[in-house]
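# nightly structure sweep
# worker-07 picked up a monomer target from the shared queue
# config: single-sequence mode, recycle default, output format = structure tokens
# input follows
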Amino acid sequence: MIPGGSVSETHSCLVRGRGAGIHSAFVFAHFGGPRSQQQQNQFFVLHLQKTWVGAKQHELQVNSMQLLYYQAPMSSGMLLVAVPFFEPLFGEGGLFSPWSVSALLMVLLSGVIAFMVNLSIYWIIGNTSPVTYNMFGHFKFCITLFGGYVLFKDPLSFNQGLGMLCTLFGILAYTHFKLSEQEGIKSKLVQRP
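# output follows
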């Protein structure tokens, strides 16, 4: 369980495979912004990654699967070095202690979902833009909060509900303006002889 986190928050982190992103969603939904230096760092790193993915994908002229193919071994190597410092290796709950079948299945499911999330990140940024991915990320956060309310009976405060409505309104407005812009470009192309 995440220190200080609820069971549903921990479950969401395990299933999504992106603990920092999910935790940031819960923090920002309270309109309080990052509460600690660690959360500010997580927020910064996640947004830096989005920008880096878009830049590298266009620079290298690769598709989402190719970029993920080259990025995954590097990320795995960094995790292999970092994990022993943050996770117990032996004893109850350690990496080398006996694991139940359900725990192994959850870890495998988490890995598959994390792969799919990363692939979707690269696909969305490669085919649209980092701003569109950012809008999609905010939509995912709203779905996560709503899912916690529906599935795990997490309380949903007035501020969280208002924040979700404002976010969804912003996403709809962004989509409207983006589609209007695309229609304007298409109509200019059609008018040319």
